[in-house]
Amino acid sequence: MSEADAQPVLAIDAGNTRIKWGVHDGRGWSMTGAVPSAESGTLHRAWHGATLADRAIACNVAGSVVAHDLNGACERRGIRLEIIRAPAREAGVTNGYRDPAQLGADRWAALVAAHALGPDNVVVVNAGTALTIDALTGEGRFLGGLIVPGPAMMRASLDKGTAGLRQTHGRFVEFPQGTPDAITSGAVQAAVGAILRIAAAMEKHGARPARVLLSGGAAAEIRAHLPLDCELHENLVLDGLVVIARLR
Fold it and tell me: Is 229 annotated in the active site?
């Protein structure tokens, strides 16, 4: 490991629901944490007493207020912060978007992490508030992907958008015989179906995926019902941010 790779990096993934962060020392995560995105102004308190790093790299899909609070928290600790945008190419990955910068920086970081794991065709899934499903070839070509509501948002939309379907938590069953089970099972099946459609499209175009890489709060829930080889990666976005930081 080079001296540069051994320098600690603070990686920050500011999502719609949570701001996840971690300090990577070149070998692994020496510490990780999270605060609700709605409480981004408290981030500096979450870092109180922690040994962080001189440099931070972040992706932010949570808006300008969160960006302001990220900058403020880093300034308090004397940390240089870079908030990334998706480029046309980086770390062996080619961005397939017509406008590369339109791709969410969190999705880009996850694709970079996925490619760094090995030269396989993979489906990269981040199952958070939104469910993103991205196709990546072994050569590092990002073919494109889907954005749909995550299971929790699907359930919440029925609660808010209908008169008779209040949000309830049921069980997953193949043939639901009650409304709570129907809502829970439907949300999971919709997520699984979207992933299978992308996998099928990749195979049709000669890039059959070797596996699905899953991250995010609903990853385990989806994995249990996905009939494909899967790997859970809790810190996929943060891992990608570290790869990017080491190259810049």
Answer: no
pLDDT for the residue numbered 4? 59
Angle at CA of residue 197, ends 193 and 200, nearest 5° = 135
Q: How far apart are CA 86 and CA 99, in angstroms?
A: 10
Give backbone dihedrals phi and psi of 102, rounded to 5 degrees, phi first: -75, -20
Q: Which of 5, 25, 54, 106 is catalytic?
A: 106
Q: Judge whether 80 and 54 are in contact, CB under 8 Å.
A: yes
User: How much is the average pLDDT of 96-115?
Assistant: 97
Residue 27: inside a domain, yes or no?
yes
**Structure confidence by residue, pLDDT tens digits, 187-211:** 999 999 999 999 999 999 999 999 9
Number of domains in the chain: 2
Measured over all CA atoms, what is the biggest interatomic distance in the chain, rounded to whole angstroms? 61
Q: Are 153 and 191 in contact (CB under 8 A)?
A: no
Q: How far does Cα 34 stand from its chain's mean position?
A: 14
Cα–Cα dist 111/190, whole Å: 23
Tokens read off for 1:
């490991």
Q: What is the mean pLDDT of the chain?
A: 93
- Quote the domain boundaries for residue 185: 119-152+164-234
Closest CA to 40 of 61, 67, 22, 21: 67
- Res 159 pLDDT > 90: no
Q: For position 85, what pLDDT does the model report?
A: 97
CA gap 47, 37 in Å, rounded: 15
pLDDT tier at 6, thresholds 50, 70, 90: confident
Same domain, yes or no: 188 and 126: yes
What is residue 25's predicted lDDT score, i.e. its pLDDT? 92
Which region holds residue 147: left if phi is over 0, alpha if psi is between -120 and 50, else beta? Answer: beta
